[in-house]
Amino acid sequence: xxxxxxxxxxxxxxxxxxxxxxxxxxxxxxxxxxxxxxxxxxxxxxxxxxxxxxxxxxxxxxxxxxxxxxxxxxxxxxxxxxxxxxxxxxxxxxxxxxxxxxxxxxxxxxxxxxxxxxxxxxxxxxxxxxxxxxxxxxxxxxxxxxxxxxxxxxxxxxxxxxxxxxxxxxxxxxxxxxxxxxxxxxxxxxxxxxxxxxxxxxxxxxxxxxxxxxxxxxxxxxxxxxxxxxxxxxxxxxxxxxxxxxxxxxxxxxxxxxxxxxxxxxxxxxxxxxxxxxxxxxxxxxxxxxxxxxxxxxxxxxxxxxxxxxxxxxxxxxxxxxxxxxxxxxxxxxxxxxxxxxxxxxxxxxxxxxxxxxxxxxxxxxxxxxxxxxxxxxxxxxxxxxxx
Length: 388
What we know:
Helix 2 (36-50) packs across helix 3, helix 8 (217-223) packs across helix 9 (238-251) and helix 10 packs parallel to helix 11. The N and C termini lie close together (8 Å). The chain has 388 residues and is an alpha/beta fold. The chain has a six-stranded parallel beta sheet with strand order 5-6-4-1-7-8. Strands 11-10-9-15-16-17 form a six-stranded parallel beta sheet. Strands 13-12-14 form a three-stranded antiparallel beta sheet. The protein is built from 14 helices and 17 strands. Helix content is 35%, strand content 17%.
């Protein structure tokens, strides 16, 4: 795999370089509420700018329906990126016209061909992008699991290189598979167990402990025979989850579930709630966070870990009253001597929202979906094409 360093050594002054970045940030109107992905894109872009490249950046924001939509404009991102680079970043349709300049293409998903399942349609858009550049740098790790025009197809049409972010992310993920130190503990949370079926199935043959919290835990608890009240439950996954519980026992994997939760009267920031055991959740209540005993339990199960991967919050961390479980897991990782990886998505957002030190973790991924698909054992098309 050729890298940005290879490209820089070849010389880029005056050359047109297309960079696929991941600038898919959360917005409140036109205000960026978490600029982590923008900041993560800076090292690659700054290196190219300083070397005199004419940089064209392709990125997406949200899920527009293949046509322009003002609420998904990358204009706020261009402004923030310009601040971080210390220069103007304009949104355009052409290429950068001077050495060291940066042009950000408007949301690439405004063109339906970007995400088309038709190879010819994606290739046509890739041809248009390739005509604007002399080289391609893949630096959007959050989309490398997608076979999309600006991620996969354009790399087949131009000399291609892995950016610093993608290279760093892939090296970290390989440490979770090829250079593993044990005990290896994975913490999974989030809303739906269905989102992580493949990951759980694959991990049961690799991990020493699997800690399950968040909304997905209630399907596991139900599979154990507990009533879960009005908590989030995927009844169509009960048979699958029962199979996981049995397989974990057969393999000697310690699968740890909550023993208490914060049971609320409704899904609201100010909802009345109480701590209850997981075998005594009232029929009219829903669990919105793991309880204090579970927080101590999970922290204890992380204490001797040498490798930890965490993906998914333990509760509704956006509501302060139900953020304690997520904070407890994050703080346990900060205190740990393990190699700790935060698997992007809501977990990374929670770290920043709760004001925890980012340097307290070995690595905070920018790509939750890509991280999970890698751990699921799937091939990442945007990485595979760089290796070709």
